From TrEMBL:
GO (cellular component) term, any one: plasma membrane
The keyword Lipid biosynthesis is assigned to this record: no
Domain MrpA C-terminal/MbhD: 606-670
Annotated MrpA C-terminal/MbhE domain residues: 683-774
GO MF annotation, one: antiporter activity
Record localization: Cell membrane; Membrane
A Gene Ontology BP annotation from the UniProt entry: monoatomic ion transport
Signal peptide (from-to): none
Membrane-spanning intervals of the chain: 24-46, 80-99, 106-124, 130-149, 161-183, 203-219, 240-260, 272-290, 297-316, 322-346, 367-386, 406-428, 449-470, 499-517, 563-585, 597-618, 625-643, 649-671, 683-703, 742-760
Domain spans labelled NADH:quinone oxidoreductase/Mrp antiporter transmembrane: 126-411
Protein name per UniProt: Na(+)/H(+) antiporter subunit A
């Protein structure tokens, strides 16, 4: 149960961040970093209990009526992600404190950051499908706040909205998929899905579930053609880029696919669609990254490419491919988070992220250079770093004799070669050169600014050197959880003569060649993409602009400011709904027999009819309002004659207040004194009124002709004394059994009264202001 409590820790830190910011402005980030550090140590303590492929679900009822639980699923996959979220989160908090030092917005930024941390941690640990979706959407909302943190900049606002729209639509697709899975399989949690013998493969709705789940996963993990939002999200402060869009959030879609691999994998559809889109994303991301000169954008596009590689490996589905995906996921989080923080440190201390303005930084920032080089070596897949283990293992996993395996292997080699070059473009090029060029005199930043990337760089090196321990604690449990069966991982940093080693040499040669020709290749890619014209990013703007235009036109059509059109639309809809429903469902009532009425009852009905005629024929508003009350008073008298004095009294009060309020309000509004409608308009309005009257009358007759179900009345009679302690059943219903309804009705009446009071207090217009010779006011 402590695991459930641990989910709340980041949210507690989010609440405390603005409060502590008033007193601990200098030490705020250091103090708050203790929260994710404690979480990291807690999850790390649980790792040894799940090294044998164990899986445990813990939960409590959340919404029992819908079968929703607040539950967590602990295994090698979820614990690895929890370690990444909390461990890298600790370093990011420290980095953010130094990066935004002296910024009065730091407490708010950390509040948003912890809100995201809690959402991402809940997502990767959630067992219940609905709980997972709730945290999934919370990551979208919190990332929206972080991406648009610098809200005074148009580019930040656009990027935030774009990310929210794309991932939000994907979230709706995922929700539909989860609901369909629950309906079709009866499983409401991941643990139940994983326990099913054939998973979802044999369900007739597998295709629909597959498409809906992919809609959520592909948008969140920026797969082609939804890749465009992630590079634009680099408008966020660098700590956001390093945390959300490299180590955590963008891997949520990959996590979902990995989690569902045992339940939805091993089908032709899964093993075709995922590798194809993953391969396309890998190539698109690396090629577009080669075009960039901004350090963060280069890293952003390589993140897109890396996500494509992970999706491709997950879809390929062999044990080797899954092991390679596991190793690469961890390696990517380490080296990419470190490189992003390096880029932030360069921007902070050198004043620019533009490659064309940076060179020779090793002279002023030697420590940062060493950290960047270590991360670049891991990203390039060179021994003895964990990136080398990942690259070797995924090559082993993709090797095959068929054309499909060879094609994917070729894509992986090309993509890894491009990523090696891009890694060294970020981690090496700004530091080379004899003279140090930068807008500012570059120097090493404070400890908080480089401790984070240094720890990640060392972890990338240590995981490669201590590969046996790393496999035992991380690689094997995580790969086994994804595959649904034990998966051995034995890759070592010692090169062996094999097809994977030869492919590594080819990758290095390709990467070095691209690095040396980077300027000419960048110009060629830029010319090619310019010639192709706008892509998905520009298409998003066009789609939003079109949607806005259509929305405005629909709004102006229905909300044009004319009360007569509003009322006509409402009453037409009312008449159509009632009459169509009665006819379609064969609920048209039978004509009732004419009752035998007494003389006084005939008199009251005659008065009601005369009142109706007076309302129609009245030439001024006051006469029409008073005549309108005649119907209500007549109905009240009928209630009294039928033995319902309390109902009659209520009707009398309502009608009296209605007449008074209408008289006060309508006499204060500048309306035309006479009806300027033409005869055809009067005929149409009269026809609509008659149809509404017929419809409501038929509905009431249909209800009265339905056999009466007295169970509710019997319930009130039986329990009004014992539960509510009241003798007047009507009062008990209003005050006790339906107390909240009554409260809502009182609130509505109060709001209406305030509106009436506002109208009454308006200065009465002069006669000349009311004159409407053209008859435009009605």
């Amino acid at each position: 149960m402590i695991a459930l409590v641990a989910l709340a820790v980041p949210f507690v830190a989010a609440v405390l961040a603005p409060l502590l910011g008033r007193f601990l402005s200098r030490w705020l980030a250091i103090v708050l970093s203790l929260f994710p550090l404690v979480l990291f140590l807690f999850w790390l303590r649980l790792v040894p209990f799940f090294t044998g492929g164990e899986r445990e679900s813990i939960g409590v009822p959340w919404i029992p009526s819908f079968g929703v639980e607040f539950s967590v699923l602990l295994d090698g996959l979820s614990l690895t992600f929890a370690l990444l979220v909390s461990g890298i989160g600790t370093l990011i908090v420290l980095f953010a404190g130094a990066y935004l030092k002296g910024d009065e917005r730091l407490p708010r930024f950390l509040c948003y950051l912890f809100l995201f941390m809690g959402a991402m941690q809940g997502l990767v640990l959630a067992d219940d499908l609905i709980m997972l979706f709730v945290f999934w959407e919370l990551t979208s909302i919190s990332s929206f706040l972080l991406i648009g943190f610098e809200r005074e900049r148009m580019a930040s606002r656009r990027a935030a909205i774009q990310a929210l729209v794309v991932t939000g639509l994907g979230g709706l697709s995922l929700l539909a998929g989860f609901l369909l899975i629950r309906y079709a399989s009866g499983a409401s949690s991941m643990s139940e899905l994983l326990a099913m013998e054939n998973g979802l493969r044999d369900l007739p709705v597998y295709l629909a579930c597959f498409i809906l789940v992919l809609g959520g996963a592909f948008t969140k993990s920026a797969q082609f053609p939804f890749h465009f939002w992630l590079p634009n999200a680099m408008e966020a402060p660098t700590p956001v880029s390093a945390y959300l869009h490299s180590a955590t959030m963008v891997k949520a879609g990959v996590y979902l696919l990995m989690r569902l691999q045992p339940a939805m994998g091993d089908t032709i559809l899964w093993e075709t669609v995922l590798p194809v889109f993953g391969a396309i994303t890998l190539l698109v991301g690396t090629i577009l990254g080669l075009r960039q000169t901004d350090l963060k954008l280069v890293l952003a596009y390589t993140t897109v490419a890396s996500l494509g590689l992970l999706v491709m490996l997950t879809g390929f589905g062999t044990e080797g491919a899954i092991a390679g995906a596991v190793l690469y996921l961890v390696a990517h989080s380490l080296f990419k988070g470190g490189l992003f923080m390096v880029a932030g440190g360069i921007d902070h201390e050198a004043g620019s992220r533009d490659l064309r303005q940076l060179s020779g930084l090793r002279h002023g920032m030697p420590l940062t250079f060493a950290i960047a080089l270590l991360c670049a070596l891991s990203m390039g897949g060179l021994p003895p770093f964990v990136g080398f283990l990942a690259k070797e293992e995924l090559y082993y996993g993709l090797v095959g004799d068929d054309a499909w395996s060879m094609a994917l292997l070729a894509v992986a080699v090309i993509g890894n070669g491009l990523m090696l070059a891009l890694g060294f473009i970020v981690g090496l090029r700004p530091f080379l050169g004899k003279d140090m060029k930068a807008p500012k005199k570059a120097h090493e930043g404070p400890l908080d600014l480089w401790i984070g990337p240094a720890v990640l760089a060392v972890c990338g090196l240590g995981a490669g050197i201590l590969y046996r321990f790393f496999h035992e604690m991380i690689s094997i449990p995580m790969a086994s959880a994804i595959a649904g069966q034990p998966v051995p991982v034995e890759i070592s940093p010692i090169p062996h003569l094999s097809i994977a080693f030869y492919l590594t040499l080819l990758t290095i040669a390709l990467g070095v060649g691209i690095y040396l020709l980077q300027d000419s290749l960048r110009a060629g890619v830029d010319r090619t993409l310019t010639a192709l014209g706008w892509g998905p990013d520009r298409g998003f703007d066009q789609a939003i602009a079109g949607l806005t235009t259509v929305s405005h036109r629909i709004t102006y059509f229905f909300q044009n400011g004319r009360l007569d059109i509003y009322m006509t639309t409402v009453f037409c809809a009312l008449a159509f709904t009632v009459l169509f429903s009665l006819s379609f469902f064969a609920e048209t009532p039978a004509l009732p027999e004419w009752p035998a009425l007494a003389i006084h009852e005939w008199t009251i009905l005659l008065i009601i009819v005369v009142g109706i005629g007076t309302v129609i024929m009245a030439h001024n508003r006051l006469t029409a309002i008073v005549s309108l009350g005649i119907q209500g008073f007549g109905v009240a008298v009928l209630f009294m004659l039928q033995g319902a004095p309390d109902l009659s009294f209520t009707q009398f009060m309502v009608e009296t207040l209605s007449v008074v309020i209408l008289a006060l309000v309508m006499t204060r509004i500048p309306l035309a004194k006479t009806d300027h409608r033409s005869n055809p308009e009067k005929l149409v309005d009269g026809g609509i009124a008659i149809l509404c009257g017929i419809g409501i009358g038929a509905l009431l007759l249909s209800v009265t002709q339905t056999p009466f179900d007295g169970r509710l009345s019997e319930f009130y009679e039986q329990f009004s004394r014992t539960i509510a302690h009241g003798r007047n059943i009507v009062n008990v219903i209003i005050v006790d059994f339906r107390g909240l309804d009554t409260l809502g009705e009182i609130a509505v009446v109060m709001v209406a009264g305030l509106a009436v009071l506002g109208l009454i207090r308006i200065r009465r217009p002069r006669i000349e202001d009311i004159a409407t010779p053209t008859g435009d006011r009605s």
